[in-house]
Here is the input.
Amino acid sequence: MEEYVKLNSENGIGTIEFFHPQSNSLPNHILEKLANTITDAGKDDEIKVIIIKSKGERAFCAGASFDELVAIDNKATGKQFFSGFANVINAARKCPKFIIGRIQGKAVGGGVGMASATDYCFATRFSSVKLSELAIGIGPFVVGPAVERKVGNSAFSSMTINATKWFDASWAREKGLYTEVFDTTEEMDMEIKKLASTLSLSNPEAMEGLKKIMWEGTDHWDTLLIERAENSGELVLSDFTKKAIERFKTK
Here is the structure.
């Protein structure tokens, strides 16, 4: 199957689904489509609540596309690539509708950032998380503010420093990244449907006002995350990072 991002709207619920054959990794054009789709759904008066999900069972999102990371050969391209993650997080942050996350499997790097940018996040027990950026010579600079906002500085630091460790779904729930964790996707989907249906009948103005309160203190992220993207774009050009990425790809 070819990669895609699609939006389905039904009964006031907008479901955004993305797919990439490489474990739902995120090349730049997918990131751009995700950001635009979140923004469009936020402007659609027929949509009252949004669900973000990926296709498949094993992986929610493998994070950055290694093929594109290796291909980056100048600062401008590097900044543009990492700005894709910034734009998705900022689109979710500024979206006036509540966003429900559906995490059915493992999430890495940018995938953890996406989960952190949702307002209420469901997961299965298979949904371990990892911030692997330091292991390839960079760091979770762009997704960092979103992850730290959810899990706190101590947990974020642990994930950042121990970049090869998978932190299980129970740990992620304990730290606040996940709100609820289920044994099966079927159980999770039942609860997602129940919450989304309830929210679709709730007062849109009240939900928008609550979301603004929940995201207070993040207005500077429009600038901050792009600055972080520029920093990452420079680091990815180093010989250390290039070689580390190549080693990762051959594993």
About this structure: The chain has a mean pLDDT of 96. Residues 48 and 201 are 8 Å apart (CA to CA). The two ends are 24 Å apart (CA to CA). DSSP finds eleven helices and eleven strands in the chain.
